[in-house]
Amino acid sequence: MCISRPEDFFISEDVSAEITALSRWENFPQAM
């Protein structure tokens, strides 16, 4: 798992938000 910004890693307490972000990045190449 790649953490673009350390702030996101420490601030992100919502697991669902992380899963949503990961799913978006996984679907990003397909969207293009």
Which short descriptors sum up this protein?
72% helix; 2 helices; mainly alpha; 32 residues
Task: Tell me what the structure shows.
The protein has about 30 residues and is mainly α. It has 2 helices and no strands. The model has no long low-confidence stretch (mean pLDDT about 70).
Net shape: flat
User: What is the percent of helical residues?
Assistant: over 70%
Q: Characterize the main sheet.
A: none
Output the radius of gyration.
10 Å
The averaged pLDDT comes out at 70
What string, H for helix and E for strand, traces the elements in order?
HH
Given helix and strand content, the structural type is mainly alpha
Poorly predicted ranges (pLDDT <50, ≥5 residues)? none
User: Care to count the β-strands?
Assistant: 0
Number of helices: 2
Beta-strand content: under 5%
Distance between the termini: 21 Å
Helices and strands in order:
Layout: H1 6-11, H2 15-31
Concise summary:
The chain has 32 residues and is mostly helical. The protein has helices at residues 6-11, 15-31. The chain contains 2 helices and no strands.
